[in-house]
Specification:
Blueprint lengths: L1 H10 L11 H8 L3 H13 L3 E4 L3 E4 L5 E3 L16 H8 L4 E10 L3 H6 L8 E10 L2 E11 H4 L14 H7 L6 E9 L3 H7 L7 E9 L5 E10 L3 E3 L7
Parallel strand pairs: 3-10
Antiparallel strand pairs: 1-2, 4-5, 5-6, 6-9, 7-8, 8-9
Helix pairs in contact: 2-3
């Protein structure tokens, strides 16, 4: 049953927003028990193909993953371009980016302090962002910067930086010329489920990026939590 419904979804026979047959209809059609139907539907929920609500029943989910090219963050923007990387990627495919921003001065977690090469007790500025696409929560991004480097800049202020924090770092004399990425996957925390409005069983990809200036000093650690059903990360490599 799960295979038949999956085929109908992938083939386009069932489109995003379409309701699935009721449990009673599926029971009659396949001559199976209600428990079997629920197990099959639960499998599709865990795969991110359908959502189940008390009033609407089972409905095919919208599947429009955002294609991200992490390597493009270092590329110069087009002449006159003033958007940070995520907003630019969203706008380029005709969708609407927005975000909520919180800024704080913190003693960063040990792994962040290590990546930033901060001495014990050294403080950092963190810009915590909940990012939206078409008014739907899409991912979170927490960017940490050494306080001593950015305390008198826009990075330490709780407002959107339209041109992006990377440009501000460059203006401060610390352009990022090298980046190191760590990418892993896990199940979300309860806080992430709530903030990102995740469906049950949806894993997240954690993308940690460390940016280094020309002196090879780490100047930024960005931690992005990306729901796996909403993002596609693509790297393009060329041999020179």
């Amino acid at each position: 049953m799960a295979s038949e419904l999956r085929r109908a979804i992938y083939s386009g026979e069932l489109r995003p927003g379409d309701p699935l047959p009721t449990e009673a209809d599926l029971m009659r059609k396949s001559n199976v028990s209600r428990n079997t139907v629920r197990l099959a539907l639960g499998e599709l929920v865990n795969e991110g193909l359908i959502s189940r609500t008390p009033r609407r029943g089972s409905v095919v989910r919208e599947r429009r993953p955002l294609l991200l090219y992490p390597q493009k963050e270092l590329e110069p923007q087009p002449e006159g371009g003033r958007q940070e990387a995520f907003a630019r990627a969203v706008a380029e495919v005709g969708r609407k980016p927005s975000q909520d921003i919180e800024v704080a001065i913190v003693e960063p977690p040990e792994d962040i302090a290590t990546r930033l090469a901060l001495p014990d007790g050294e403080l950092a500025v963190v810009r915590r962002r909940l990012r939206y696409v078409d008014d739907q929560p899409f991912n979170t991004n927490d960017s940490y910067f050494p306080l001593s480097l950015v305390q008198n800049s826009e990075i330490a202020r709780p407002a959107d930086i339209t041109r992006g924090a990377n440009r501000v770092l460059e203006e401060l004399g610390h352009p990022q010329v090298r980046m190191v990425d760590d990418i892993s996957a896990r199940m979300p925390t309860s806080e992430e489920v709530s903030r990102l409005k995740l469906e049950p069983g949806t894993p997240v990809v954690v993308h940690v990026r460390v940016g280094y200036d020309p002196e090879d000093m780490p100047v930024r650690v960005a931690v992005s939590v990306l729901p796996a059903d909403k993002h596609l990360i693509r790297y393009e490599l060329e041999r020179h």
